[in-house]
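Students often ask why inverse folding is considered easier than folding. One informal answer: many sequences map to the same fold, so there is more than one right answer. In these notes we will look at a single instance of the problem. The structure comes first.
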């Protein structure tokens, strides 16, 4: 009977039908069905109620969050458990990033990750310590042979902590597919997280995207305050927004969970214009190779100026993030004069809670484009771009730009501390995906300072901060690479790091102490290397970079002499080095280690 029915379907309707079917597959209800199939595979990594301070794919400064952050009662030392049987496939120790991080590969095809740990369990801790002493390095990235360190579900694998770049004690927890290391939304596995709170819209943002586009008669983006009624939101006073030509939409929206005040991220965003879907974002899987696309996805200028992390609901030409499941005209909306378009933005969290923002766009006549901004060069995404004059030579690789750019350039004399002009490269509010090559004139740098050069960012008030110490000087020119626009100048770093003892001084009896603490700081290019020796033997100093702290916990590698000498050697990236020696005592009646 079906072959007798002749139904003509327009291309737009056919695309929507295909998309609708895909939505059924990827909606939160389907996630729940998947989760039910996985019930019993994974247990919780903690033995307390799971309260989140961060969730999967929420917007961070330069990346989408690749896991969930579990609160550990505000202190270090909470037991962290293996979520299933498996083997330790990777252990990374770093003063930055994930800090002490453990990776466990499971037979189910997934790898679980436990980051910012205070310690590993005894077996893992001893293995790591042996490797650190063998390499004479605190920071290690280890890949034990398969089966060398096996774990059982529910086994304590470490203690929760605050290591690395963590801003407070918590467990950063991930589940990745083992074959491609793509992080998955852990909430798919129905960990016992209570959430019946719908996302909350805070602002609507409307952007003029074409030459003659306006928003309420101005040629710049506007933020609109909202009013709430239940799970429904409207623009304050419910007045239509007057727009001309092609515009884009954005929303500042966060999700919240029960029993915690932290702002989290939404799982889905959908935009409907006159009931037709024009944009669909879904965040159930991430790729580390794509993570920097967040700089194009969010309103980067709002992040820089006001620390507002807003979703743009339109897609830049150079943004290839795979979280966009559907878009019509890359999310751009054309509104002709006299048109009246009803728009809805749906925000949905990982548990299916939904809020809806509704508003009306009213079309007006476009205006003449503003051509008053001086443009040094038009740069285009998807191709290599160059800019060169007597002072600088810039080369932008093909994947540097997210969108077409009317590049601006100027310079001004530098201060006495600088070894170049101050170069104004476009606008710090515009993000870049890849580093570009930056060659700048710097005549007259003395020979003894050529290897001390670094590139600094220069604020409007003259304050400077290091951007990169990787500067090569050749024939009066400096060569480096940067991944941001702004104001830059060359400076030199000739001052070695400073070493300040915390709990040790000359000839102190350290018998009652558990270890040695010192502070190390460098006001210019930072800390590059640190090594500690006792009676000439290298010992393991852990580095807590965020607190500028070096700490050696007395261990079996400590020489068993009553009179001891500590020697610390600390260098910055420009090879400025400080050396401090301190004699101390420790009686033979030492605590067993």
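Output (designed amino acids):
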């Amino acid at each position: 009977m079906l072959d007798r029915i002749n139904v003509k379907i327009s291309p737009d309707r056919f695309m929507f039908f295909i998309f609708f079917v895909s939505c059924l597959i990827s909606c939160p209800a389907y996630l729940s069905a998947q989760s039910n199939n996985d019930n019993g595979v994974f247990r919780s990594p903690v033995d307390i109620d799971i309260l989140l301070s961060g969730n999967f794919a929420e917007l961070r400064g330069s990346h989408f969050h690749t896991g969930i952050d579990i609160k550990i009662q505000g202190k270090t030392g909470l037991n962290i458990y293996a979520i299933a049987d498996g083997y330790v496939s990777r252990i990374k120790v770093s003063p930055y990033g994930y800090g002490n991080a453990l990776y466990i590969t499971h037979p189910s095809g997934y790898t679980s990750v436990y980051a910012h740990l205070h310690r590993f369990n005894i077996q893992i801790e001893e293995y790591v310590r042996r490797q650190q002493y063998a390499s004479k390095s605190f920071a290690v990235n280890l890949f034990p042979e398969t089966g060398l360190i096996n774990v059982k579900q529910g086994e304590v694998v470490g203690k929760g902590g605050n290591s690395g770049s963590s801003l407070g004690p918590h467990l950063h927890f991930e589940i990745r597919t083992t074959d491609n290391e793509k992080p998955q939304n852990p909430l798919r596995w129905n960990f016992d997280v209570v959430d019946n709170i719908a996302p909350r819209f805070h602002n609507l943002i409307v952007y003029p995207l074409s030459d003659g586009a306006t928003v309420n008669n101005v040629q710049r983006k506007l933020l609109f305050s909202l009013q709430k009624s239940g799970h429904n939101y409207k623009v304050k006073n419910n007045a239509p927004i007057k727009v001309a030509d092609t515009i884009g939409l954005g929303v500042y929206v966060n999700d919240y969970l029960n029993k915690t005040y932290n702002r989290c991220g939404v799982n889905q965003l959908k935009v409907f214009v006159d009931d037709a879907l024009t944009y669909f974002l879904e965040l159930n899987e991430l790729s580390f190779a794509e993570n920097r696309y967040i700089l194009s996805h969010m309103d980067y200028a709002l992040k820089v100026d006001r620390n507002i992390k807003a979703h743009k609901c339109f897609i830049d030409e150079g943004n290839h993030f795979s979280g966009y499941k559907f878009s019509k005209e890359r999310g751009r909306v054309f509104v002709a004069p006299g048109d009246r378009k009803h728009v809805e933005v749906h925000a949905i969290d990982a548990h299916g809670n939904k809020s809806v923002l509704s508003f009306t766009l009213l079309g007006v006549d476009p205006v003449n484009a503003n051509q008053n901004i001086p443009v040094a060069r038009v740069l285009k995404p998807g191709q290599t771009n160059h800019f060169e004059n007597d002072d600088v030579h810039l080369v932008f690789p093909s994947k540097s730009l997210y969108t077409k750019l009317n590049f601006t350039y100027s310079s001004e004399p530098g201060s006495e501390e600088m070894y170049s002009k101050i170069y104004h490269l476009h606008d710090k509010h515009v993000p870049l995906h890849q580093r570009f090559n930056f060659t700048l004139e710097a005549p007259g740098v003395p020979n003894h300072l050529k290897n001390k050069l670094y590139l600094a960012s220069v604020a409007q008030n003259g304050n400077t901060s290091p951007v990169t110490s990787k500067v090569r000087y050749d024939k009066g020119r400096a060569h480096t690479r940067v991944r941001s626009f702004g104001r830059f100048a060359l400076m030199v770093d000739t001052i070695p790091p400073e070493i300040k003892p915390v709990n040790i001084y000359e000839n102190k009896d350290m018998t009652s102490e558990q270890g040695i603490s010192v502070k190390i700081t460098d006001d210019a290019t930072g800390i590059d290397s640190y090594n500690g020796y006792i009676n000439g033997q290298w010992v393991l100093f852990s580095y807590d970079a965020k607190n500028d702290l070096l700490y050696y916990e007395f261990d079996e590698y400590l020489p068993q002499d009553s009179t001891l000498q500590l020697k610390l050697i600390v260098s910055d990236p420009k090879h400025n080095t400080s050396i401090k020696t301190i004699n101390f005592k420790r009686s033979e009646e030492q605590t067993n280690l």
